[in-house]
Structures are given as C-alpha cells and as structure tokens.
C-alpha cells in the first residue's frame, strides 16, 4: 500500500483539503478511491456540483501535497540545499483525460504560482515542464511518447542539492538536448528564497466549467530527501540489504548527519520496500525495527 503519512489531499469538491491525519484514517470519496489492491485512483471532473479550483488556479484537482514526516498535518517546505537529493517516484496509469487532453501528474511546487518542475501528459506525450529561473519561461522536454491511456509506467524525478534535475521513465534515465546526462541545471540563485514541496495525483488542465474528467491510478508513490532514496519500483530486495539500509538510516540520524525529517522520510521509503518481500517472516522483524527507530526519531 502507498504510505500516505507524508501527504494531505485536495479534492475538487469545494477545493477542500483533507488533512494528513484524516487521510490516514481511511478517508475515501468519489474523487479519491482506494482500490482493493491498495492502489489509489484520483478523479478530477471539470464540471459538477461544487466543483471548484484552488486559489490562483482555474483547474480542478484531486492531488496529494507533501506534509511533514511526523504526521502532524503541517505542510512540508524544503530547499534544494537541505539534502543531497530530493526525489519522487511513482508507478501509475493515466486512465482518462478531459477535453483539453492535458493533466499534470507530478510536481515540485514552490512559493509562487509558477512551479519549477511539473510532469504533464498532453495527448499521447508525457513532458517535463521546467523553469530554469524563478517565474521564468518553461522548457518542455519529452519524457515518453506514444503513451496509451490505461498503460502503467513509472516516472522518477530527482533534484540534487545544487539544483540538477534528472528524470527516469521505467527505470531508464531520459537524456536529450534539454536533459543532459548530468542533469538539467536550475538557476538556484534565482530560487534562493523559494521553498519547494512535492505533489502527485491528477491536476486536470481543463478549466472548471469545462468538459471531461482527469483520472489517474497510482499503485506506488514515494518521496525521499537524502542519499537513502530507494526507487519504489524496486521490490524483493534481499532482507539483509534492507536491514543494513534501515540501520544505516537510523545511525545517520544518531550521528547528526541527517535531520529527523529526512530520516523519517527514508524509513518510510524503506518500509515500502519491506512490503515487497514475499514472506511475513521476513517482513515482520524489519517492520518492527523501522517502527522502533521511527518512535525514537519522533521523540
């Protein structure tokens, strides 16, 4: 199952925000559906009773917004320099698009109205939309072409502490004229006072009052801040390797080299990997170790 302890949710009915604690208490509605296999379906119609956009937007969304790892419903806001690496990885299908044939399925948002990084589908093409400078013009490199609605794929976006962004589709790095192998370079001087956070779900790009529905289904989603990033698509990692990673994440916190927030994020990501192990006998001690460490970090 997707760990929702790091997120709140905005639904299109009244553009209402569902707090982290409510979301993790089993919240579901017609715009946020929990599937029997643990996947999450996000639905954003452009028309209907009480369908609204959020402030400074004209579009509907059913979208997660990153919150702090301690689960106290406070929104996360971080700077690139706060960790060696910031990453978001998701496995999903885009099931339906509105009349515009456009939807945003992942973001790094900032303080202003022009996010530095978005992942958008337009028709059969998935793009990265990047603003090298704060409030600057967008670069739009292609990440995937020939996409068919309903197909499952994995995307990963990561940004280093010095502002280099890389993208991966189904585990393969995307390299082109805009996305060199060493990463797309943000002008971090222009973002010096900007704080960022991750978003994921479906942010339909058909204005409220328009036609159609944006719909996505996520079967995996994780974010990580720090060198302990673990791709969500990796499953059945050997128990000893996971055990070492769990201990290393905790030891780094004890040594004072990693913040409590980043340690909890890393432990949550590792918990997702534990879920991929086939045996309850293998999972149980690792879950117990993670929970013990999280309890100590949260004191």
Automatic annotation (TrEMBL):
It comes from Pseudomonas typographi. This is Polysaccharide lyase family 7 protein. Residues 2-225 form the Alginate lyase domain. The keyword Lyase applies. It comes from the Bacteria. One of its GO terms (molecular function) is lyase activity. Coiled coil: none annotated. The keyword Lyase applies. SUPFAM superfamilies: Concanavalin A-like lectins/glucanases (SSF49899). Keywords: Lyase. InterPro entries: Alginate_lyase_2, ConA-like_dom_sf. Gene3D superfamilies: 2.60.120.200.
């Amino acid at each position: 199952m997707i760990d929702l302890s790091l997120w709140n949710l905005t639904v299109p009915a009244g553009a209402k925000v569902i707090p982290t604690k409510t979301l993790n208490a089993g919240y579901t509605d017609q715009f946020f559906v929990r599937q029997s296999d643990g996947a999450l379906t996000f639905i954003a119609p452009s028309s209907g009773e009480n369908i609204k956009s959020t402030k400074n937007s004209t579009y509907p969304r059913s979208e997660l917004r990153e919150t702090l790892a301690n689960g106290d419903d406070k929104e996360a806001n971080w700077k690139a320099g706060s960790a060696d690496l910031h990453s978001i990885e998701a496995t999903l299908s885009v099931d339906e698009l509105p009349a515009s044939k456009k939807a945003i399925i992942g973001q790094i948002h900032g303080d202003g109205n022009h996010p530095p990084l978005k992942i958008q589908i337009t028709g059969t093409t998935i793009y990265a939309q990047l603003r090298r400078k704060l409030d600057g013009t967008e670069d739009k490199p292609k990440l995937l072409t020939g996409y068919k609605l309903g197909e499952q794929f994995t995307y990963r976006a990561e940004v280093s502490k010095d502002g280099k962004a890389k993208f991966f589709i189904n585990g393969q790095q995307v390299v082109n004229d805009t996305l060199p192998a060493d990463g797309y370079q943000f002008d971090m001087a222009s973002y010096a006072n900007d704080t960022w956070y991750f978003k994921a779900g479906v942010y339909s790009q058909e204005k409220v009052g328009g036609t159609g529905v944006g719909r996505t289904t996520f079967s995996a989603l994780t974010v990580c801040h720090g060198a302990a990033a673990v791709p969500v698509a990796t499953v059945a990692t050997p128990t000893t390797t996971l055990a070492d990673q769990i201990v290393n994440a905790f030891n780094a916190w004890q040594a004072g080299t990693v913040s409590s927030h980043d340690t909890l994020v890393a432990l949550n990501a590792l918990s997702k990997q534990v879920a991929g192990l086939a045996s309850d006998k293998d999972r149980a001690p690792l879950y117990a170790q993670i929970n013990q460490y999280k309890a100590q970090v949260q004191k």
